[in-house]
Design a protein that fits this description.
By secondary structure, the protein is an all-alpha fold. It has two helices and no strands. It has two domains: about 40 residues; about 35 residues, no CATH class. The two termini are about 35 Å apart.
Amino acid sequence: MIFTLPATFLAGFITYGTTLEHVVPSSIFIVLGGALVVAYIRIRTFPCPRCGHHFGVKHPLGANIRGRKCAYCGLEAYPEL
C-alpha cells in the first residue's frame, strides 16, 4: 500500500517524454491497486484453524463485530499465555 503512489510517480518520471508516458504509470497503479484489493479480501477471509470458517467475519464484506475472535467458534487470535 505504501509503494503504490511512489511506484506510479517513479514510473511516470522514468517514462516522461516517451510513447509509454501515459500507459506505464496507469498500468502500475491499476496492478498495485488490484493487488491491494486481493490482499484485503484474503486477509478478511482467512480460515479459522479450529472450525475452518472465515476467522473474523461471517461474510467477506461484513463488519468484524467480534474483534479478534472467530466469528463462528470464538477462538481468540492472540490468547494470553
